[in-house]
Fold:
Amino acid sequence: MNAVGDNRERGGGEPILDVRDLRVWYGTGGDPVRAVDGVSFSIGAGETLGLVGESGCGKSTLGRGVLGLLPDAAAVAGSVRFRGRELVGLSVKGLRELRGPELGLIFQEPMTRLDPLQTIEAHFRETLRTHRPDLDDDEIRRRSLETLAGMGIPRTRFGQYPHEFSGGMRQRIMIALALVLEPKVLIADEPTTALDVIVEAQILGILADLRRNFDTAILLITHNLGIVAEACDRVAVMYAGEIAEEGDAREVFAEPAHPYTRELLRSTISLETTGLNYIPGAPPSLIDPPPACRFHPRCPNAMRVCAERHPIEVRAPAGQRVSCWLHGPEGEIPEGGREPLEREEFLEAEEA
Amino acid sequence: MSDTAAQPSAETSGENVLEVRDLHTTYSVRGSFFDRLRGRESGSVRAVDGVSLDLRRGEVLGLVGESGSGKTTLGRTLLGLVEATSGSIRLDGEELTGRSEAELRPLRRRMQIVFQDPHASLNPAMTIGALVADPLRFHKLVSDREELRARASEALERVGLAPASEFLDKFPADLSGGQKQRAVLARAIILGPDVLVADEPVSMLDMSVRAKILELMLELKDELDLTYIYITHDLATAKFFCDRIAIMYLGQIVELGPAADIYERPHHPYTAALLRAIPEPDPRRTVPRDLPRGEVPDAVVPPLGCPFHPRCPKAFEVCGWESRDLRTLLEDRWTRLSQDDYERERAGVGNLDVLDVPSVDTILPVPDGGTGEQPAEVLAAMRADAADDPFWSGVAATEVTDAGVRARFHEPRVPRDLRVDRSVVRCHLHDPEALAAAEEIRRGRDGTQNV
Structure:
């Protein structure tokens, strides 16, 4: 089924993080919400993968699923391998040992992750004592200060409390707290969404330096296509729990293979925008998504086959992998399958 | 080319719906629990700090700025939701400031607001029909239930929530984010206002919906002869949506001009920096690394001179250099030193807190039991490593004393509104007097060398 699910050859060597057919359901009493439904990707050392999609597409659940940070009500299937080691099914304790020193995390709201009653110094001391019991106090202090300074936090402010810092500084502190353990993988979930544009650009610069200088593999989850273009080597576009398209960021932006990617790019308002575009309709329910291709009810290119059979992942001309019948495989499309699909019109207000 | 513009476009008086002159809105802030523990009791924030603008009938005026720029407070002050501290707001010539709540009420019908968060703007216990018709009831214009329902239907259909019968009896929770914002717009237009203040109306919506709501707003504007004030942090939607744009920073409008000019040839370095920092969905373009340093400063004690000078790559002699800039520069330098070098240099200066008091005559203090030569060495090292930093242009003289190195700065000038091309700009780069003062300083400096 998975024709070209592998992109190991492109990362140069073994991927640090390798996700295969990952599925996450939330039980809601009735039918489950299939937030992540058969997702595969891998990230190599020093590589940044951008995961983009609109709200409710499952991108944050995917990030949490990789780290084993899902609520008890969630069920997980599939495989997440970190340097060859399977994480799905690992005990809470086993995961906790990996989180931090191996798998770092950055969230959108730094203030909710920092303890208001503890100084920045105390945050670093606790983190390093937990994960690096071999370090003495002098070394802990030295490493903490070096990392903070690397993020542009004045050394004289080491003893201050989180509320004494601005939003941008707090996000830098969060990044420093993740980096002080020198993780191999960093998962950043909307790390700049709460920040102003100049500070956002500063943080993107920091992330770019990370992958250059420390060979960190980064999974950057965002709704902002501009940030992906700015900070990522590769991009995976998510729609309704699935990856619609994944590939080299430049190629995907220059020549989007999936109609959803193309329409999302067209509807994004940028400095180059001269006319307004939008995708008609709304993203589907993840409890009862449309059959076959989940985008077909909204897709301007929908064909008959799109409503009948789930697309098969193929390699698009520009090199990215894409799940869309427009790109074949031809042998799997039944006769007449390429005929345009008669679609129902959407009401004007039927939208997200 | 530039001259002062104390009266922005006074020539178009009859065409202005709203005329705002030297508006100030000041909040008093009580320190947080922690601040009180540290003895920082309270202060005041000039959230809107001397704003003058005209809103021309039928235009879309953008108020664009980062958080803390005062754009939201300005919008709320215009609507009377926040009381102005001083200045004048005239709606079709009628003064709004200093009016009582009862006097303002009929005027309020002519100005409505749309907030950022549609989920928070709609009472979850009321039906969409009741919510949309609520202003009619509140202003005692309609009391008949049938008529309220009919008027709500009409407004809902106008914003695309059609057929209205499908939405009237629904609750906000039944609607998507975009649909809720449509309902909010329906409520805002039901009184037939002249002016709509839209505060980040699409920021919380997904990309694929934003364009649709903006398009609806443009349609409503044409059909209902509305005038918009569009408040946003997003320069991309503002470029598309606005006729004119006011760029705000720390409570002031630093640049106001036609949207095309703002993007084609920004005159204020802050505007230029904002534009360059936007990540664009085009991988061939990248955000530059020479971004303004730091963040928007503390509004309780704003910088001397121009509020943007500490971050400005083009700031010069008279822009307002002062003690706090010295501390920022020193601490920033220290983040780039190794721990050992930092500790050695840190030992060469005393308690830096003296620099936190804004002053143009300050001291980089000696360490306990040290001599004035030590901080002088630190200052010399700073200068040697960052000779190009605009900060040094502001240093008038340094002198080694027993207490430390005394540093005196050039007298700060407060920037004034200047007309540049079709825009009004508050920046010394366009002020012949400020440039002349700097030139004077440079000539003097060439004659007498400082330490």
Observations:
- The two ends of chain B are 38 Å apart (CA to CA).
- Residues 158 and 223 of chain B are 10 Å apart (CA to CA).
